[in-house]
Amino acid sequence: MICGLIPISNLFLSMDSYLQSLIVTNPLQEPIFRRAIHALDLPPGSHGIDVGCGIGLQAIMLAEAVGTGGHVTGIDLSPEFLVYARRIAEKAGMSEQVSFQEGDMNNLPFDDDTFDWVWSANCAGYAPGEPLPLLKELARVVKPGGSVIIIAWSSQQLLPGYPVLEAHLNATSSGIAPFARGMAPELHFPRMMGWFRRAGMEEVSIRTFVGDVCAPLSEEMRSALAALIEMRWVDVEAELSEGDWAEYQRLCLAESQDFILDIPDYYAFYTYSMFRGRVSG
Q: Of 13, 123, 134, 250, whose CA is between 20 and 30 Å from 75?
């Protein structure tokens, strides 16, 4: 699972640090995911798969949505994430409704037409590469008439009052990850609707969900935003002008006297975009 808050190029972070980042930044993501899952109106008692489930936070929300007669299977490449996911599910009393196993989203270990729907957050269709084979693989394990759902981080404004600096930061290699300079425009995540259709899916739709925060910040939200700002733009000094680098250090480092989160009128927003298609047949 690649969290959309953290560019793929930044996965030099230790596993412990990455796990911690998923936990600390969850208050920013959870309300959006809950709204997105509610909007899906998943059939009660249905069985689904969470591809790139990470530490299982969305898998549990999905299981809550389908009720006690349903089941969610979480798949991830990282055994460390899955150990943590099982602990979270057990603590939440959801071990009967959620299960986890190691697996590759490009070669799912399931028969055709196994699930009623597939969900992937900040993972499938978001990482660099050709989306079509992956979307076909996701659709393969879904029953005809079922849904393929992909949702991922799509934009943010974290530095109110400094739009030029934030634009320059977003134009760095870290800022545009998981995409890369020179990548074909049609491979960009917002073009996913076309790839759903190329994969043979019908009734393709998109919906964007917005999260926002403003001062005064709770300690939990302050920690989440501080972690997000720290992770959002990593190793950017070489790609910034001297002036932009100085402003970045002044505004984006928690130890700075001018840390952006300390301004009394702080406001930020961020968006997730969700694509959904119906498997034909």
A: 13
Contact 167, 240 (CB under 8 A): no
Report the predicted TM-score, pTM, of the whole model to 2 decimal places. 0.91
DSSP string, 137-148: HHHHTEEEEEEE
Paired tokens of 147: 């849904």
What is the number of alpha carbons within 13 Å of residue 107 lying toward its C-beta?
A: 0
Q: Which two tokens stand for residue 19?
A: 């796990």
Give the amino acid at 77. L
Residue 182: which of 118, 128, 125 has the closest Cα?
128
Euclidean distance between CA atoms 169 and 198, whole angstroms: 33
Q: Are the CB atoms for 279 and 143 separated by under 8 Å?
A: yes
* Rounded distance between C-alpha atoms, residue 176 and residue 208, angstroms: 19
User: 6 pLDDT band (50/70/90 cuts)?
Assistant: very low
Which one-letter amino acid corresponds to residue 53? Answer: C
The answer to whether residues 140 and 112 touch, using CB atoms and an 8 Å cutoff, is: yes
Give the model confidence (pLDDT) of 98-139 as tens digits: 999 999 999 999 999 999 999 999 998 887 778 999 999 999
How far apart are alpha carbons 162 and 185 in whole angstroms? Answer: 27
136: number of CA atoms within 13 Å, CB side? 7
Start-to-end CA span in the chain (Å): 29
C-alpha to C-alpha distance for 99 and 80, rounded to whole angstroms: 15
